[in-house]
Amino acid sequence: MALKLGLYWIPGDIRRAVDLVRLADDAGFPIFGVCDSPILYEDAYPVITACLAATTSIEIGPNMTNPVTRHWSIHAATLRAHDHLAPGRAMLGIAAGDGAVHSLGLRPADDTTFEDAVQQIRKAAPGCGRIHIAAGGPRRARLAGRLADAALLGCGLDVTALRALGDALDLGCLEEHMGGRRVERWAMAHLNIVESERDLEAARAATLPLAVAYARHAFSTSFASKNVPPEFQQPFRERLAAYRFTSHAVPGGDNPNARLLADRPDLEDYAMTRFTIVGTADQCRARIARVADEANLDGLWLSIVVPDPEILVQRAAEAFHDLLNPEAR
C-alpha cells in the first residue's frame, strides 16, 4: 500500500485555510489537518467545517485537539455534524493536550481521562470518522493500539524511536483485538521544499522554531524510548524549559523560541534533522522514502506552517506526485 501523505496547518485565517485545502484536494492529498490552539489562532472547528464544505474528496479534521479545552461531547457532536456534512471525510485527531492547553495554564489530560474521552466519543458518534491518537511514548502508543484507527507516533523521524513506538502500538492492538486489526502508523515532520540548495539557509531559519516546538513536545515528559543521545538530554531539558507558548509554532527567525538552542549548534542540527524535512524536492522525496520504509509507516503528516504555504503545497504536489497519484506511475 502506498504511503499516505497528510498536510496540516495552523488556522490563522479561515479564508486562507479554505484556499489551502482546495489546493491540497485538487493535488490529491488524502487528508488535511487543522491545528487546535484557540487562544493563539482561529477556532479549529469552524475552519474545518468551512474546509469540508469547500472540498469534495479530502478527509479533514483536527490535528490535534484535546479533551481538556473542549469536553468530549463537543468533539462527538462535531464529528457527527462533519460526517453528515461530508460523509466519509470527517476525522478526529486527538491528544492529551499540548500548546492549546499549556497556553492557558492548564495541564494535559491524564491517561484515564484521555481514554474515557475517546471511548465516550466512540459511543456518541459511532461510525463517524476515523480517530487518530497522538502517541509520544510507549504507554500512550499501547492505548492508541486499543482505541485508535491510526496513531501519530510523535517522536519525529528517528527510525529507532518510531519502531519502538510501533511495537508498543501493535502490543496494545493485540491486547484489545487479539490481532484482528492493525492500527496505522503515522509520523510527523515540518516540511519546507526549496527550489535550489542556495535557498536552504533561509528555509532552515524559517523552520527552526517549528523544530524547537516539536522537540519541546517530544521531550517534555521523558526521554525514555526516544533514542536521544545521553549527552543531549540535560542540555535539551535546560533550554526547552524556557519555551514561550505565546509564540508556539510560529515560523520565522523572529520567534524567540528559535534562539533557545542558539548556543548549541549541535542541538539545533539534531532538532532540525529529527523533526523537519527541508531540502530540494529530490532530497525531500528520498528522506521520506527512507524513513517510511525503515519505520514501516502507513502515513506521514507534513506541516505546511511556513510564510508562503500556498507555494509549499504546490511544490509538495509536484514533488510527491507519484505518491498522490499511484495510478500514474
Which helices and strands occur, and which strands form pairs?
Elements: E1 4-9, H1 14-27, E2 31-34, H2 44-53, E3 59-62, H3 72-85, E4 91-94, H4 99-102, H5 111-124, E5 130-135, H6 138-147, E6 150-153, H7 159-177, E7 184-193, H8 200-219, H9 230-240, H10 265-275, E8 276-279, H11 281-295, E9 299-303, H12 309-319, H13 321-324
Parallel strand pairs: 1-2, 1-9, 2-3, 4-5, 5-6, 6-7, 7-8, 7-9
Helix pairs in contact: 1-2, 1-12, 3-5, 6-7, 8-10, 11-12
Please give a structural write-up.
- There is one protein chain.
- The chain is 48% helix and 14% strand.
- By secondary structure, the chain is α/β, with parallel strands linked by helices.
- It has a single domain (4-328), classed as Luciferase-like domain (TIM Barrel).
- The model has no long low-confidence stretch (mean pLDDT 92).
Proportion in β-strands: 5-15%
CATH class: Alpha Beta
Q: What characterizes the major β-sheet?
A: 9 strands, parallel
Q: List how many beta strands DSSP finds.
A: 9
Number of helical elements? 13
